[in-house]
Design goal:
Number of domains: 2
CATH superfamily of the largest domain: NAD(P)-binding Rossmann-like Domain
Oligomer: single chain
Mean pLDDT: 96
Largest sheet: 8 strands, mixed
Number of helices: 13
Radius of gyration: 22 Å
Distance between the termini: 19 Å
Number of strands: 15
Length: about 375
C-alpha cells in the first residue's frame, strides 16, 4: 500500500503521525511510504532520518495526497485539504467529527474511508490511541499552570510547590482518567494539596493506590465541587463533555466563588462544555479572563512536547496502520471490532453515532456495514 505521512498545517502543531522507526516497519512489510518534506522537523526528526528508514521524501504535498492510498496524519482535515479527499482514499487521523461539521460534510461528500484515532476502543472499554495524548495533556496542563501562575506571566506569583513557610497550593482536578492522573502525578510530586473529583469510585480506588498521600479523592457532586472551587488555586478540568449536553459542571456564576489569582486549565477544551466559560485557545494566544479568572484552554497541549507526543502516538497507531496496509481497509475493519469503532465515514455514509445525533445526519452502523464486505 502507498502511505503518505503529512506535515500538519494546524498552527503550532509540531507532531508527526509516524516517526522514522514506524516508517521503517511499514517499509519492511512491503509498503511504500511517502513523507512530506519537514513533516518531522518539529518533532526533531529530519528528512534524512526518514530516508534512512526507507521513505521517499516529497516536497509537493499535493503529489502525496493525490497518489497514496492511506493518508496518515495527526490532526483533523482542514479546509485547504478538502480538495484532496477522494473515494478511494483512507484517512487515518484524529478527526473529532462532532466538533467540525464542515469537515464531516467534506468527508461524506468525497466518499473516502475515514477512521478516527480517538474513537478506536480496546477490550477494557478504553481509548488506546487517545490515552497517550491524554496523559501528556494532563501533565502539560499542570506545567502551563506552573508557568502562568508566575508574576512575570500575568499570574499572582504563586509557585505551585510545597515551600517551607508558605501554605501548600491547592490543585483541584476534575476527572480521574489518563489526563487527570497525569496532572495529579505532577501536582502531587510538587507538593501541592491535590483534590480529585470523579463519579467512578473504582477508578478513584485504583488511583489512590498509586498517588501519594497529599491527594484526596471526592465524589463529584455539586456540594463537593463548590467547596473545592472556594479553596483551589488551580482548577484543571480533564473530562470530555458530551456535545449534546447543554448543562455544565462549572457555571459562569461559580467563578465568583474562586479566590483572586486562581486559575482554570481546561485540558478537554470543549467550548462551553463541562466549564461554561471555556473556549479553545492556541499556543500563540493561550489565555484569557472571565469573571477575573485566568483561563488556559489550548486545544493541542501535547504539541508543546512534540517529540514525546509523536513517539507515543506513533507507537499506539502503528499496529492499526499496519493492519490496514496489510489486509486492506475492509478486511481490517471486518476483523477488528475496535478499529471498526473508529470508523467515521465510508462511501458517503456516516458511521459515528454521536455525530449523527448531534447534526441529525443519517447513521449507518459500522457493524452492519461490514456484513456487506
Amino acid at each position: 500500500m502507498k502511505i503518505g505521512v503529512m506535515k500538519e498545517i494546524k498552527p503550532s502543531e509540531y507532531r508527526v503521525a509516524a516517526i522514522p522507526s514506524a516508517v521503517a516497519e511499514l517499509v519492511r512489510r512491503g509498503n511504500e511510504v511517502f513523507v512530506e518534506h519537514d513533516a518531522g522537523k518539529g518533532s526533531g526528526f529530519s528528512d534524512d532520518d526518514y530516508r534512512e528508514a526507507g521513505a521517499v521524501v516529497e516536497a509537493d504535498a499535493a503529489k502525496i495526497w493525490n497518489s497514496v492510498d492511506l493518508v496518515y496524519k495527526v490532526k483533523e482535515i482542514f479546509p485547504e485539504e478538502y480538495k484532496y479527499l477522494r473515494k478511494d482514499m483512507i484517512v487515518f487521523t484524529y478527526i473529532h467529527s462532532n466538533a467540525h461539521l464542515d469537515q464531516t460534510e467534506a468527508l461524506l461528500k468525497s466518499g473516502c474511508t475515514s477512521i478516527a484515532y480517538e474513537d478506536i476502543s480496546d477490550d477494557r472499554g478504553q481509548w488506546p490511541l487517545l490515552s497517550p495524548m491524554s496523559e501528556l495533556a494532563g501533565k502539560g496542563g499542570f506545567l502551563a499552570a506552573l508557568h502562568f501562575q508566575q508574576t512575570v506571566n500575568g499570574g499572582p506569583g504563586r509557585l505551585l510547590a510545597n515551600v517551607c513557610g508558605a501554605p501548600a497550593p491547592v490543585v483541584t482536578i476534575i476527572g480521574c482518567g489518563h489526563s487527570g492522573m497525569g496532572a495529579a502525578e505532577l501536582a502531587s510530586s510538587f507538593g501541592c494539596q491535590v483534590n480529585i473529583l470523579d463519579i467512578n469510585y473504582n477508578a478513584m480506588l485504583e488511583a489512590k493506590e498509586i498517588l501519594p498521600k497529599n491527594v484526596s479523592f471526592l465524589f463529584s457532586n455539586r456540594t463537593n465541587l463548590l467547596k473545592c472551587l472556594k479553596e483551589t488555586d488551580v482548577l484543571i478540568n480533564c473530562i470530555l463533555w458530551p456535545k449534546t449536553r447543554k448543562d455544565h459542571l462549572v457555571y459562569r456564576e461559580d467563578l465568583k466563588l474562586m479566590k483572586p489569582g486562581s486559575m482554570i486549565v481546561d485540558v478537554a477544551c470543549d467550548d462551553e462544555g463541562a466549564l461554561e466559560t471555556c473556549r479553545s485557545t492556541t499556543h500563540t494566544d493561550p489565555v484569557y479572563y472571565e469573571e477575573g479568572i485566568m483561563h488556559y484552554c489550548v486545544d493541542n497541549i501535547p504539541s508543546a512536547f512534540a517529540q514525546t507526543a509523536s513517539t507515543t502516538l506513533s507507537n499506539a497507531t502503528l499496529p492499526f496502520a499496519e493492519a490496514i496496509a496489510s489486509k486492506g481497509v475492509e478486511k481490517a475493519l471486518k476483523d477488528d471490532k475496535h478499529l471498526r469503532r473508529g470508523l467515521t465515514t465510508y462511501d458517503g455514509k456516516l458511521t459515528l453515532l454521536e455525530t449523527a445525533e448531534k447534526y441529525n445526519i443519517p447513521f449507518v452502523s459500522p457493524d452492519d456495514l461490514v456484513k456487506e464486505f
